[in-house]
Amino acid sequence: MPPRTLYQKLVDSHTVQPVDTENVLLYVDLHLMNEYTSPQAFAALEEKGRTVLRPSQQLAVVSHIIPTRAETPRVIEDGPSRKQAENLARNCGQAGIRLYDTNDPEQGIEHVVAPEHGYVRPGMVILCGDSHTTTYGALGALGFGIGTSEVEHVLATQTLVYRLAKTMRIAVDGALPFGTSSKDLVLWIISRIGAQGARGYAVEFAGSTIAALSAEARMTLCNMAVEAGARAALIAPDRVTFDYVRAHARLPPAAWNAAMDDWAALRTDPQARFDCEYCFDASDIAPFVTWGTSPDQAIAVDQRVPLAQAHSSREAADSARRALEYTGLAPGQPIAGTPVDRVFIGSCTNGRIEDLRLVASIARGRRVAPGVRAMVVPGSGAVRRQAEAEGVARVLIDAGFEWRAPGCSLCLAMNDDVLQDGERCASTTNRNFEGRQGRGSRTHLMSPAMAAAAALTGCITDVRKLEKQ
Ligand SMILES: CC(C)[C@H](C(=O)O)[C@@H](O)C(=O)O
Ligand code: SF4
């Protein structure tokens, strides 16, 4: 057998049969669904008189449209949204699929719920009609988003006709500098390689910086790899992965030992070749923040918005000009000091317990700046309860943050958490496209620590200055 990359091993072990030189029929271990991208697939199945082949390998969560007011029971007042949730409940009920429904204590964002309940383990293939399914590469599983017709195919056959990706390795070495986290790391990588830089590739992250990240920090990184166009993101499982999985998956001891033998082989062979390789030095990383409407339009917080002539091409300069018109910033202006109206802490990128702990550590004993509305939306019911049990929630509430119920919320503003036209938001999410957080909304992507700093000072602020005080 020629040397193979981790990606190739995962694909090979799940190939039912090759379709042609570029496509294989891929076996799917787990398929996740939300209320937003699954209804058409169920409707199409029903029309064809087909059923769900393996209900026990499906999992569904109400995540995108759910309101985040902390009240019980939670009521979805918006008619079409309520209908989506009801549809999902009916479809899952009929097919016998486990659903974390609106008022389930474990409800949350699919990509937060699945790993924390042990559904995600190294070596698996996990699909979902949602682009941020790349998150699961953090635990050594091949995860990626699929379209609605593919959802239907997976429900009916537990397989997918899959076009193979090219392979890329991004190695990062060295310690993450003071004040930075894996969110800064990924924004920095995207700003280097571009929002299309990994398009068509399955990316494997490697190097000592990655090895030093916690499992949750790795999820942040793999989650956002899709914002560089990656078709998948992978990190070879190691001690950190196994400890996380052991704590969350609760496998019986015999199964655990067998699994560990298999998982140890889940790494790229030394002689294997990648189609593309990058090597970066972590000491170049700083707290990062976006200034535009694409995740690669990002700079270190102590830098200025780039001047027109700083862009690499005319196209990039044009897109920067349009982006700045939208975000209401000027070339050459320092990004720090830009006032914000809103702060959003949450999403499948940064809505986990470690993120909230970090925010609390900065907010402790301080107050949200007057005139700023700052929301914390935990990624799941479990994250919310844990934050309450640890006193993290208390610190946030005392500092003046709104303590909300879990969901996607202001990450994509499909519920009633929406920015007003022109409002500017410091956000721990993953997309800053025009209108992403509401019509005319202006989004600045950043780490939880940086978002905390923005909430406490009322403007984009270098968190290193706050942390030193
Ligand atoms: C709604 C869904 C299709 C979408 C995605 O695929 O990512 C959403 O989760 C997002 O983050 O934009
Ligand atoms: S939190 Fe945001 S990125 Fe994640 S699944 Fe929900 S909408 Fe998509």
TrEMBL record:
Its cofactor is [4Fe-4S] cluster. One of its GO terms (molecular function) is 4 iron, 4 sulfur cluster binding. Binds 1 [4Fe-4S] cluster per subunit. Keywords: 4Fe-4S, Amino-acid biosynthesis, Branched-chain amino acid biosynthesis, Iron, Iron-sulfur, Leucine biosynthesis, Lyase, Metal-binding. Residues 9-458 form the Aconitase/3-isopropylmalate dehydratase large subunit alpha/beta/alpha domain. It catalyses: (2R,3S)-3-isopropylmalate = (2S)-2-isopropylmalate. It is an enzyme of class 4 (lyase). [4Fe-4S] cluster binds at residues 348, 408, 411. The keyword 4Fe-4S applies. The keyword Metal-binding applies. Its EC number is 4.2.1.33. It comes from the Bacteria. InterPro entries: 3-IsopropMal_deHydase_lsu, Acnase/IPM_dHydase_lsu_aba_1/3, Acoase/IPM_deHydtase_lsu_aba, Aconitase_4Fe-4S_BS, Aconitase_4Fe-4S_dom, IPM_dehydratase_rel_enz, IPMI_cat. One of its GO terms (biological process) is L-leucine biosynthetic process. Pathway: Amino-acid biosynthesis; L-leucine biosynthesis; L-leucine from 3-methyl-2-oxobutanoate: step 2/4. Catalyzes the isomerization between 2-isopropylmalate and 3-isopropylmalate, via the formation of 2-isopropylmaleate. Belongs to the aconitase/IPM isomerase family. LeuC type 1 subfamily. Heterodimer of LeuC and LeuD. This is 3-isopropylmalate dehydratase large subunit. It comes from Candidimonas nitroreducens. The lineage of its organism: Bacteria, Pseudomonadati, Pseudomonadota, Betaproteobacteria, Burkholderiales.
